[in-house]
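User: Please predict the structure of the protein below. I'd like the answer in C-alpha cell form so I can feed it into my own downstream comparison script.

Assistant: Understood. Taking the following sequence of 458 residues as input:
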Amino acid sequence: MFSIQSIFPIVIFITVSFAILMANLFKLSEDKSAKYCFYASILVALGMLLTLTRDVMPLWISYPGSLFFSLFGWCLFYVSLEYLILGKGNPKLFAILCGIYVIAFTFLLDNGYVFYASLFSSAVWSAMNAYLTFKMWRLNSSHPQMPMMTWIYAIASISWAARILLANDFQLPLIHQHSFLNWATMVVNFLLLVIRQVNYLIIRYDITSNENVQIKNLLSERESLISSLMKANKTAATGALSAAIAHELNQPLGASNLNIQFLKLRLRQGDLNSETYEEVLSALDSDNKRAAQIVKSLRSIFSENNSQPEKINLNDAILRVIDIVGPELNAKNIYLELNVRGDFPVKINSNEIEQVILNLINNSIQSLMHTSVSQAQIAIEMYKTGDFVCLSIADNGEGIRGEFKPNLFQLLTTTKKTGMGLGLWLCRHIVTECGGNIWHEDVSGGGAKFIIQLPLCI
C-alpha cells in the first residue's frame, strides 16, 4: 500500500540523479557553482537516507546526521546560486549555523526534552528558510527566474512555521515521526527540492547562453580592435621610412624621365640608331622594374588582406622588407649584415610576418640614431633549432633600459618619446597566434636582440 514514507526513495533517487547529472555536465573542480550544487544534492540525499533508516540506526547517528546533512545541503543550494550569480559565496557560515543547530538539538534530546527538541528543530528550519528567502530576494534582479527561487524558500519557511502552529492549535503529534503533519511537511519540502533543482538548471542554461553570446561579441570586438591597431602600426612603421622611400622612388623615376627626354631629343634631331634605342629602352625597363619592386613591397606591407595563414618561405618575407628599409639604411649609413641562407618554410600570414620584421628593424634604426658607435650595424640571422626556425634581429645601439624589460611586450608600453606602444605588442600577438614565440636578449657590448621562433612547416 502506498504511503508518504515511500516518497523518500523516489526523492533520494531524483536527488542523486541530479548530482550525477551535475558531475557529467560540468567540471566540478573548476566550477564552484556546479560543485556546491553537487554537494548539496548528495548531502540532502544522505540526510533523507538517515531519516528513512531512523528505526534501525542508533539515535546519536540518525538524528544529528539527518538534520545536519539535510539542512546544510538545503543551504548549499543557495550557495551554488550565489556563486552562479555573484561569483562568490560563504558555505562556512552555513556549516557553522547547522553545526550549532545540531548540537543544541542533541542536547535537548539527550536531556529528555523531546517535544522542545522537535519544536526547536522546526523553528530553526523555518528561520533558516526565512533568512535564505531574504538573501534570495536580494538576487531577484539578477535573473527573471530568481523570484521563483525566492518563493521556493519562502514556502519552505511557511511550511515549517505552519507545522508548529497546526500542532499547537489542533493538538497534532508534532514529535511523532509517522504523523501526518510530519510527513506532510516533508512532502512539501521534497516537491520544493525537485522544483528548485529544475529551476537551477534553467537559470544556469540561460546565464551560460547569455555569457556565450557576450564572449562571442567580445572576441569579435577584440579582433576588430587588433585589426585597427595593426593598421595604425603599419602606418606608423612605413611613415618612419617615407622620406627614404620617396628618395628611392625618385631615383628610377628621375632616370626614366632623363632617358625619355634623351629619346625625344634624338627623335627631333633624326639621330636615333638601333643601338642607342635599345640601350635607352633597357635602361627604362630596368628603372621601371626597380620602381615596381618598391611599390610591390610597400603594397605587401599596407595590404589589408585578412587571408588565412599559408606556407611561405621566411627568406622571401625578409627580402621584401629589406627592399623597403634598404634606402633608409643607406641614407643613415647603417651597415646591414644579412645571414638568411637556406630554405625555411613556415605557416603564417605573409603580410603579418613582414610587419613584424619591419617593426623590429625600424626599432633598431631608431635606436642606432641615439648612439655614438663608430659603425652603426644591424645583423639579421636565421637558423634552425629542432622543429623551429629562429630569426634574430640585433643592433649595436643603446639597448633596452632595465625598467622597460619586464613589460616590453605589453600594450601601450614604449621606450620612445613619440611611440604608441603598439609595435612589440602586435609582434608578440602575430607570432604567438601561429604557435611561435618572441623574446628579447641583451647584446654584449651594448645593443638589443629580438628573436622570433616559428614552427617549421614540413
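That's the full C-alpha cell string. The first helix runs from residue 7 to 25.
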